[in-house]
Write a structure and sequence with these properties.
- The protein has one domain.
- Helix content is 25%, strand content 14%.
- It is globular and about 55 Å long.
- The relative contact order is 0.14.
- A three-stranded parallel beta sheet has the order 3-4-5, with helices on one face. A two-stranded antiparallel ribbon has the order 1-2.
- Helix 2 runs parallel beside helix 3.
- It contains three helices and five strands.
């Protein structure tokens, strides 16, 4: 079993040595222009190969819709030039939320999610004259959710504290 070790690679030569040591076949290039090229993703095309990874802001409105901070964050991602924006974990059931601030998509707030997507597309179009690919990560946290979101039949787990 391999142990985790800190990222220590600072040069391409160090990267090449690490790849060789692990007997991997990973191409390494000094030419980064490929990152600016379009990329087909299913039936969509990202205008470049830069992506924003999902980072939960826990800043939804009480009904799970994207709040003002969500709009600000995702508008900034769209304005940043990324070809793909992967949205944060978004619950599919109220009791599946990991905490009260997690996004939660349902029929009563789908319009706000649509508005967020429109805002992101308009922002990218205004900044770069192009569209972006947007992916949403749907989730259900099951027993790993905050105590106040669990059904009463489940006893709280030892060590859990409630968010306020």
């Amino acid at each position: 079993m391999s142990q985790h070790k800190r990222f220590h690679i600072k040069t391409l030569d160090q990267l090449r040595a690490e790849v060789s040591q692990k007997c991997l076949s990973i191409p390494v290039s000094e030419d980064l222009s490929v990152l600016g090229e379009p990329l087909s993703i299913g039936s969509h095309t990202a205008p470049n190969r830069f992506a924003v990874q999902p980072m939960e802001g826990f800043d939804s409105t009480p009904n799970g819709a994207p709040g003002p901070l969500s709009f600000r964050r995702y508008s900034r991602y769209a304005q940043g030039g990324f070809g793909l924006v992967w949205m944060e974990a978004t619950a599919v059931l109220h009791e599946g939320r990991s905490n009260p601030g997690q996004l939660y998509l349902h029929k009563d707030n789908v319009g706000v999610f649509c508005e967020l997507v429109r805002t992101m597309r308009q922002t990218a179009k205004a900044a770069f004259g192009r569209d972006i690919v947007i992916v949403i990560q749907l989730t259900h946290s099951m027993n790993f959710r905050a105590p106040m979101l669990r059904p009463r039949a489940l006893p709280p787990r030892q060590g859990w504290t409630a968010w306020t």
